[in-house]
Amino acid sequence: MRIGGYANATPSKPRLFYGEEKYMTADGEEDVAGLRLAGAAVAHARDTALAAIEPGISTGELDAIARDALASHGAVSAPMLAYEFPGHTCISVNDAAAHGIPSMHIVLSDGDMINIDVSAELDGYWADTGASAAVGQPSELMSRLLEATKLAQADAMAVAKAGEPIRLMGRAVEKRARACGFTVLENLHGHGVGRFIHEGPDIPNTENRRDRTRLVEGMVLAVEPFLSVSATHAIEDVDGWTLRTNDGSMVAQFEHTMIVTQGEPLVLTLPLAGT
After folding, report:
1. What dotted CATH number matches 29-267?
2. pTM of the model
3. pLDDT at 274
4. How many helices (H) and strands (E) would you count in the chain?
């Protein structure tokens, strides 16, 4: 897998973190302000593209919409800048969990599940966000999966407090998934962000009771659970980028960039006012 930040779908390939032990802490108002601007850029691009989703539109067209939204903020696509990814955003459909390549040939149909993941760099600060949505009228199963994944993401952020073990975030995701009747893609993780698109720490979406890593105040995290109807792992597609569920089942993801505090997280990629 060419893009870092997730556990490897193919263990023989190297991890691509900027530094396995490196992570950013927001050390003052200048850092927070810079991260807020980067977060606003990716949130705007995400929501503008989500609003354009309809049967008959291509993922390539959605990518162009997000590209223009990023450009309006002066932001640069992170996957292009960091990894020469063949798209400004990652757009994944149905059983594709992550890193889907936008294309004019992938045309959305009623009942599809789509995920738009937007990350960007702005004035030296990096932010990352994503959201899944139904195309047209969602099925009852799709609606439940979307709601469960959104709640799992919120649950993980809620326990991400300074001094707490990172493993509590994975526990929260697993608990929500089980309660809602869904599975977690165990080899797709969240990650640190801020000075580069994929930094430490690694944030598993399942609990590793042996992990003693604790969160640090000011740490900048991209929190992104992946819930599926039945899959437990993602595998790399033949295109060398796209990650798909191991059993072909539907998957959803929601992601926010946040700063760890002693209390409530400072979420940098919430929808902008008026959108």
Report:
1. 3.90.230.10
2. 0.92
3. 57
4. 5, 15
